[in-house]
Amino acid sequence: MAETAVHQAPVEPAGHAENVVEIKGLTKRFPPDVTALDGVSLTVARGSVVGLLGHNGAGKTTILRHLAGLLAPSAGTVRVFGRDPLEHGAWVRRRLGMLPGTAILDQRMTARENLRFAARLFDLPTRGLEERIAGLLTDLGLGDRLDERVSGYSAGMRQRASLAKVLLTDPELLLLDEPSTALDPVAQQELRGMIRRVSHDEGRTVVICTHDLAEAAALCDTVVILAHGRIVAEGNPAELASRVGHTAVEIELDPDDERAALAATARRGGPGANGPGTNGPSAPELEGPGRLRLQGVTRADVPAVLRDLVAAGVDVYAVRPRTGTLEDLYLTLHAGPARGTEEQP
Ligand SMILES: Nc1ncnc2c1ncn2[C@@H]1O[C@H](COP(=O)(O)OP(=O)(O)OP(=O)(O)O)[C@@H](O)[C@H]1O
Fold first, then answer.
1. C-alpha of residue 54 to centroid of ligand 1, in Å
2. Which residues line ligand 1 (CB under 6 A)?
3. Which stretches does DSSP call E strand in 154-269?
4. For a pocket test of ligand 1, which of 56, 74, 334 has the largest count of ligand atoms closer than 8 A to its C-beta?
5. Which of 47, 169, 171, 270 is the most exposed place for a label (fewest CB within 10 A)?
6. What residue owns the CA closest to ligand 1's atom 7?
7. Which architecture does CATH list for 2-235?
8. What angle do CA 174, 77, 196 make, to 5 degrees?
9. Which of 29, 61, 64 to mutate to test the pocket of ligand 1 (most atoms within 8 A of CB)?
10. How many angstroms is it from 230 CA to the middle of ligand 1?
11. What is the pLDDT along the chain (345 residues), one digit of tens a residue?
């Protein structure tokens, strides 16, 4: 995509602040009684890819809307390229590209026409524009479909054309709101590859909201897990997954012995057994016929677990420790109390 960048619009660079985004104590209340964000502090380093993860309603999109200067904080501060996006809305928006969850293409136009129209709205210079539009769409795999109406595109093609439109202004910061929702696995994979290219290869900073933990693990340098408008965990995906550690054990046994095995292992584990800050499920679970999973059990507990099983007359065929994943941490963190019932920090 580097060859298309030479035709970029002459926007004065945003400066070299190390953190492209700095959010401090951001709280957002919507009347009458919704607290969408509750004291969120977050920095996004230049060139990094940060994923915002969380259930529906956790506050992810509300963060993006503050970054784009579309919402005013109830409390706290937001800085993008060192400036307040409310005060310097046009300046900030000129340097960021937002792919919202909603459609941004006119279905009646072709992809090429959509980008030409956007270029006029953004007042981009016409010199080299046609080559840039064709180059962007080609780079995003739409080279042979440029002149087809968007209404005939698949969901994956529409998302790629939308990304091309967002990249038209050569933004330094990309805000992507669940870009691969509703895409099939192949289209998701393709879009992910393209996001990786425009972020890591081209050095853009990216904030991406996603429900897809595999996507977060594959794309993000840092993952921020939100629950009820607060950050509950933050770190790089591998580091976060390792917090869960080898705290689960999978036991293969005779399916006829499942009930006895559940009874024999029921007292193992317990709240907090998964490590500091976690309160995950600890009851034994059947993962499939003859496959029992014990959460909150470490390697050191295995001999005692086996003794219990043998005493209960259970035939054990195999015991495997299970490495923690980002998904384990996410599920563990979200097993916490519902909004409004949690303890205040
Ligand atoms: N304009 C608004 N008026 C009232 N409540 C709002 C408004 N915008 C968002 N909310 C509420 O704020 C909370 C956070 O919403 P937000 O859209 O940020 O969540 P999200 O994490 O992006 O969820 P999703 O994954 O469903 O997109 C929700 O309870 C939502 O209903």
1. 12
2. 30, 34, 36, 54, 56-62
3. 173-177, 205-210, 222-227, 230-235, 248-253
4. 56
5. 270
6. 30
7. 3-Layer(aba) Sandwich (3.40)
8. 15
9. 61
10. 13
11. 433 333 444 555 566 568 999 999 999 999 999 999 999 999 999 999 999 998 888 999 999 999 999 999 999 999 999 999 999 999 999 899 999 878 899 999 999 999 999 999 988 999 999 999 999 999 888 999 999 999 999 988 999 999 999 999 999 999 999 988 878 888 888 888 888 888 888 889 999 998 887 788 888 999 999 989 999 989 988 888 777 655 678 899 999 999 888 888 887 654 433 443 344 445 788 888 899 888 777 777 888 888 999 999 999 999 887 766 777 777 777 655 444 334 443
Give how far the C-alpha of residue 202 lies from the chain's centroid of Cα atoms, to the nearest Å: 20
How many A from CA of 50 to the centre of ligand 1? 20
Taking each helix axis from N to C terminus, what angle separates 155-167 and 185-196, rounded to the nearest 10 degrees?
10
ipTM of the complex: 0.97
Tell me which residue has its CA closest to atom 28 in ligand 1.
57
Q: Shortest CA distance to 245 belongs to which of 222, 269, 274? A: 274
- Domain limits of the chain? 2-235, 243-333
What is the CATH architecture of 243-333? 2-Layer Sandwich (3.30)
